[in-house]
Specification:
- Two copies of one chain form a homodimer.
- Chain A is 77% helix and 5% strand.
- The first copy, chain A, folds into two domains: 64 residues, Orthogonal Bundle (Arc Repressor Mutant, subunit A), CATH 1.10.10; 136 residues, GntR ligand-binding domain-like (Four Helix Bundle (Hemerythrin (Met), subunit A), Up-down Bundle), CATH 1.20.120.530.
- In chain A, helix 4 packs across helix 6, helix 4 runs parallel beside helix 8 and helix 5 packs antiparallel against helix 6.
- In chain A, a hairpin with a 3-residue loop joins strand 2 and strand 3.
- The interface between A and B is medium-sized, with 28 and 28 residues.
- Chain A binds a DNA duplex (30 and 30 nucleotides) through helix 1 and helix 3.
DNA sequence: GCAAGCTTTATTGTATACAGAGAGGATGAA
DNA sequence: TTCATCCTCTCTGTATACAATAAAGCTTGC
């Protein structure tokens, strides 16, 4: 992907994930290119890339809109993500490289602090950072890429969490990391899988 | 994705998967657009989409080339695919819808015949059809899409199989389908996972 | 007052045009 | 010959222009 297209894509993705662009909202190429000060070409390429990731829907001759994630799709995403996060944690536990573990510890510490006081956006960013670093720890690039895409799509559906859920999140993160450090593959996998299900259940409960 | 871009993309994907375009081969936009009788725009969009699927690499200012799948990437792909095919077969066994099962039986029958006499391309097509229909049987669209992408990438690495392996393939397909029909989730998952590993091992063995 | 058909307008899909970066080759010196 | 430098030329990245479609609004007939 080229420079401008990448910048534009990141910008749009950011706005979508931040809730600044709502699901269902139309993404008109002219408007976006005017806002960003580029021509329509990079915008089109960015939208196409986002549609391949499932963040944007493109209907022929009707254009792009922010993807609407139905409850069925959420269930599907969660099922696949839970399995893959399990594998990922298992692999991370298998390797448990010291410097990656150190980075995870750092993220964990900041996450725990942020869970008490920081605004939801900062929490979301730290959450993303933890999962991203855990993905690196598995040393499986294919897995990491698939998971990142699925993570973006779920966070599109889940919006921002409550503070009580944030505390739970980081408790569970701590458990996963402890298992990874111990090299306990089974436990790491179990906790990571359960973590995904728990987050989904908490969201479903909060919106019941 | 738009009409022409889709056509162009399917055309290029077909040539890549058929081995007509070799890994590492450069994909020059001008040349492709001239060959296909379209402008560079649909070609660019098609290449971008293919790069998002991992079939094509795009380097900034250097353009696109058919992805080269390293042995490490193959191992990563196989690990993820094996797990997901397992989940998929498990879900298929859970539902075992009669008309999808009937379709799978049909594909299986034709696959068994083809394994004896048909050319490799026809075998590859039937193999793809079996896995595609099995994916439908899981009723998880997210899972199906991820798996299709991974399947394309592995077949890019594995090229075409020998006839003896083809017979094995279809024996294993039969086993998976039988477990699906029985509603035996555990067995279906086990066999599907093993099927992916077996195919990979057979290829690695043949190229040792 | 309402519906059907036409017209206009907004927006996508495709083509063409142009600028700039990188690769490869030619030229010259050691 | 071999290496460095410059030039050229190919190709990408971005912009602009044009064509075509679908939606919205308006007009007209009943």
């Amino acid at each position: 992907m080229t420079s401008l297209s990448k910048v534009v894509g990141d910008s749009i993705r950011g706005k979508i994930l931040a809730g600044q662009l709502r699901p269902g909202e139309r993404l008109v190429e002219d408007r976006l290119s005017a806002e960003l000060g580029v021509s329509r070409v990079p915008v089109r390429e960015a939208l196409l890339a986002l549609s391949m990731q499932g963040l944007v829907n493109i209907e022929p001759r009707r254009g792009a809109s922010v993807a609407e994630v139905t409850p069925e799709t959420v269930a599907e995403l969660v099922e696949v993500r839970a399995l893959l996060e399990g594998l990922n944690a298992r692999l991370a536990a298998r390797h448990h490289e010291p410097n990656i573990v150190a980075q995870l510890r750092d993220t964990l510490r900041r996450g725990n602090e942020a869970a008490e006081s920081s605004p939801p956006e900062a929490l979301a960013r730290l959450n993303s950072e933890f999962h991203e670093r855990l993905a690196v720890a598995s040393r499986n690039v294919v897995l990491s890429e698939v998971m990142r895409s699925l993570r973006d799509r779920t966070s599109l559906a889940f919006a921002l969490n409550s503070r009580t859920r944030a505390r739970e999140d980081w408790k569970e993160h701590a458990g996963i990391l402890a298992a990874v450090i111990d090299g306990d593959e089974e436990l790491a996998a179990l906790l990571a899988t359960r973590h995904v299900h728990n987050a989904a259940a908490a969201f479903a409960g909060a919106n019941a």
